[in-house]
Specification:
With about 400 residues, the protein is an alpha/beta fold. It has helices spanning about 10-15, 30-50, 50-65, 75-80, 100-115, 130-140, 150-155, 155-165, 180-195, 210-235, 250-255, 285, 325-330, 340-355, 360-375, 395-400, and strands spanning about 20, 25, 70-75, 85-90, 120-125, 145-150, 170-175, 200, 240-245, 265-270, 290, 295-300, 335-340, 380-385. The strands form four sheets. The chain has a six-stranded mixed beta sheet, sandwiched between helices. The longest helix has 24 residues, at about 210-235. Bound molecules: pyridoxal-5'-phosphate. Pyridoxal-5'-phosphate (PLP) binds near residues 101, 244 and 251.
Amino acid sequence: MKFQDIDFNTYFQQYPDEKGYFGPFGGAYIADELKSAMQEITDAYFSICQSRRFIAELRRVRKEFQGRPTPISHLERLSNALGNVQLYVKREDLNHSGAHKLNHCMGEALLAKYMGKKKVIAETGAGQHGVALATAAAYFGLECDIYMGSVDIKKQAPNVARMRILGANVIEVKHGLATLKEAVDAAFEAYAREYKDCIYCIGSVLGPHPFPMMVRDFQYVVGEEARAQFLEMTGHLPNAITACVGGGSNAAGFFAGFLNDPVEIFGVEPLGRGAKLGDHAASLQYGEEGVMHGFNSIMLKDEAGEPAPVYSVASGLDYPSSGPEHAFWQKIGRVKYDVIDDEEAVDAFFTLARMEGIIPAIESAHAVAHGIKLAKQMKHGSVLINLSGRGDKDMDYVIEHFGEKYGLK
Ligand SMILES: *Cc1c(COP(=O)(O)O)cnc(C)c1O
């Protein structure tokens, strides 16, 4: 199937199908005891989607608490320096707590509240998802259990402190390598024990149905706002849009606003140190079909067929798969997926800071680097980049590892 055969006017009614598939990708590969819990979440989600009260509450929260709509900024100095093409950024870095993740965490926590749950649980690697969920839980008065590996707890002290200040329980996972994979397993086990009182909140467009759909829908606000704002600002649509893809949530919501438009869409994966397995996390670029963490998608596998070790300078992007809808968009040719390596991302980090006064998250810097690449290839037109978050969290690391090259050491 090609994207030309799909009616994008009815895309959201068709995808995912009722079993949670986007073409061959998605689904729910989970233990029997969790199937009814997922069904309960799915049913609750479809019913609140129709609820005026829920929609009004989510709108109010986005405006009064999150600070939405976030603006679009024209990168005038950078565009002029590169040539004719005009670059713009959608400023998710200005969303409360500094990134797009709060968009779906507020949605998930509000859903938990509507379902009468007392608690939200999740795992976190670098801590960004944990902080966003702890923020949402505090706002709605829910308990919050965050599972995190001992290694990550040591590495991510500021985010651990944020979660604890916000009132979350950070639960240390000590077994195995004591990083994200073990934290995912521990959180799933806890959920299987406690699902009557809580919901599990996945941090991206990943996991079993209905999460890839729900998280995309909660992030759709980014694309919807961006499209209207760009039209109002310039009188036309951008020629191309680009966003970084870890699990793929910021990209999914942003792209969803433009699927039905004559706009070229690019997702950017992290090439890390290079194309060798273990040196990158570019799953759509180099991976193959497989099931992990409850869904079927394109993933990076080791020789045993297990999720392969991955690496990127951006800890928010180092996941060995991507959301099933991205695998689908790639398969039908609606979105092109490209790669940016560590050095290009760090270069874009400093370029945006020094030419525009915006310090991007190192994840978002991958999208900025790609926008710069497009601007050099295209002769004219405009590119809209999704700036998924702000870079305060990355400053120490970037100075320590790359400071010399940029005159800071
Ligand atoms: C977590 C994170 C990402 C990656 O997550 P997606 O689900 O791929 O969007 C990107 N940017 C920032 C700032 C993040 O915190």
